[in-house]
Specification:
Largest sheet: 7 strands, mixed
Bound molecules: 6-phosphogluconic acid
Number of domains: 3
Number of helices: 20
CATH topology of the largest domain: N-(1-d-carboxylethyl)-l-norvaline Dehydrogenase, domain 2
Shape: globular
Radius of gyration: 25 Å
Distance between the termini: 89 Å
CATH superfamily of the largest domain: N-(1-d-carboxylethyl)-l-norvaline Dehydrogenase, domain 2
Length: about 475
């Protein structure tokens, strides 16, 4: 057996196969392994030009790789990753490298890195974003953990990644499970942006009574401006896709219950653990969960009082909605980046937000024109306390706030649910409130539980006798 392949992929589903084809295009000698014969056939077919071949036998696959071996796993996150690693390890040699590129939970990645390093195997987690197209023609990649191991594959990943202004959309993220953590937060932002677009669709469809062609035209117009982003791009295209069965548009026959695989939920869970608020991302997670109560929603839609009111002054509302969408996008990134900042301190990830916003500018699902501004903000001030602290973001916020408020008011007074828009503006208002009403919360806590409070005019911890005057 020739042991001369530079890298091997385990898992030849669409993502694994496309990434392998991408590597072969860039001139790397790569191979793959999959238990499923059909996947091997597909690899051979799609990789004909490069005479790509995969293995059905794990032993043969392992023997075909040059030493130290570099093996990428692209298998479903969860217990499958552990079982693949368990099968693999007895066949490996010291210093071989395993890279988990699925959407693994960051705590699993930490555990696996520790277990494998005890056996002399290098392991690191690398989030990949960009879906099938990205994997094939240039994804954004977030590797974190064993730096030396990453450096042994760095030229391959830099070659296959998306490029923006010539810069690769891959960079070493930091120690530990930081790569998977950053990918998880990327997905949290993705959830928020998708929900904001869904709310925008609702406002256009049920508020302005726009048909699908009008929605397409408006999204298309917006996507040529500052809202330009991968998610808006694909969203607009959805409003052109026909359904073969009905002859209408496919979007109109899709059931309104959203599924999820967990990365959004994990982002919310971690944010609560770290006590770092990301309400717009949380709302996006909750809204997918609420959507599953279809029968209850249908029943309540018939029984709860509601008078439908149309939004008037269409042209003006379109302008305001563009501003609101931009505001909500800024806020979604702001929350995700703030969480990264906090996690970096808590988990010692040494995250560089400038670098992260740089590699998110291309290849990934949340790539957007706005990320260039965010990258510039962190370039100017690497320790920016919050995205809202940046002056150029502040001047944009000033312009778009009145429109954002008008949209939120119109939606609420018309009874159109806008969980993410509403939470985004409230998040903004909470952060620009120097004196919040939470002095009352502290008073209540001390009143019924003697939990003490601090004063604004004197240092120390105080407790009051709240019943003294009663
Ligand atoms: C990406 C995507 C990708 C995938 C999500 C979808 O960055 O390429 O985020 O990872 O599409 O896992 O997540 P849900 O199934 O939870 O929506």
């Amino acid at each position: 057996m020739n042991n001369n392949y530079t890298l091997g992929m385990i898992g030849l589903g669409t993502m694994g196969r496309n990434l392998l084809l991408n590597m072969a295009d860039k001139g790397f000698r790569v191979t793959g392994y999959d238990k499923d014969e059909k996947m091997l056939k597909k690899l051979e077919e799609d990789g004909k030009a490069h005479q790509l071949k995969g293995f059905e036998s794990l032993e043969d696959f392992i023997k075909s790789l040059e030493l130290p071996r570099r093996i990428v796993l692209l298998v479903p996150a969860g217990p499958i990753v552990d079982s693949v690693i368990a099968e693999l390890v007895p066949l490996l040699d010291k210093d071989d490298v395993i890279i988990d590129s699925g959407n693994s939970h960051f705590t699993d990645t930490s555990r696996r890195a520790k277990e494998l390093s005890e056996q002399g195997i290098h392991f690191f987690g690398m989030g990949i974003s960009g879906g099938e197209e990205g994997a094939r023609f240039g994804p954004s990649m977030m590797p974190g953990g064993d730096k030396t191991a990453y450096e042994s594959v760095q030229p391959i990943f830099e070659a296959v990644s998306a490029k923006v202004n010539g810069d690769p959309c891959v960079a070493y993220i930091g120690p530990g499970a930081s790569g998977h953590f950053v990918k998880m937060v990327h997905n949290g932002i993705e959830y928020a942006m998708m929900q904001i677009l869904a709310e925008t669709y609702d406002l256009l469809k049920n508020g302005l009574k726009y048909n699908n062609d009008q929605i397409y035209a408006l999204f298309n117009k917006w996507n040529n401006g500052r809202l330009k982003s991968f998610l808006l791009e694909v969203t607009k295209d959805i409003f052109k896709v026909k359904d073969e069965k009905t002859g209408g548009l496919l979007i109109d026959v899709i059931k309104d219950e959203a599924k999820s695989k967990g990365t959004g939920k994990w982002t919310t869970q971690v944010s609560v653990d770290l006590q770092l608020p990301i309400p717009t991302i949380n709302e996006a997670v909750s809204t997918r969960d609420l959507s599953k109560f279809k029968a209850l929603r249908v029943a309540l839609a018939n029984s709860l009082p509601h008078e439908a009111i149309h939004i008037k002054d269409t042209a003006n509302f379109e302008v305001q909605l563009e501003q609101a969408l931009y505001f909500a996008m800024i806020t979604s990134y702001a929350q995700g980046l703030h969480l990264l900042e906090q996690a970096s301190t808590e988990f010692k990830y040494e995250l560089n937000l400038k670098k992260i916003s740089q590699i998110w500018r291309g290849g990934c699902i949340i790539r957007a024109e706005l990320l260039e501004d965010i990258f510039q903000a962190y370039t100017k001030q690497p320790k920016l306390p919050h995205l809202y602290s940046d002056e150029s973001i502040q001047s944009q916020l000033k312009d778009i706030l009145p429109g954002t408020r008008a949209v939120v008011i119109a939606a609420i007074s018309n009874g159109i649910a806008i969980p993410c828009y509403a939470s985004a503006i409230t998040y903004y208002d909470s952060f620009r409130t120097a004196n919040s009403p939470l002095n009352l919360t502290q008073a209540q806590r001390d009143f019924f539980g003697a939990h003490t409070f601090e004063r604004i005019d004197e240092a120390g911890i105080f407790h009051a006798d709240w019943n003294a005057n009663n």
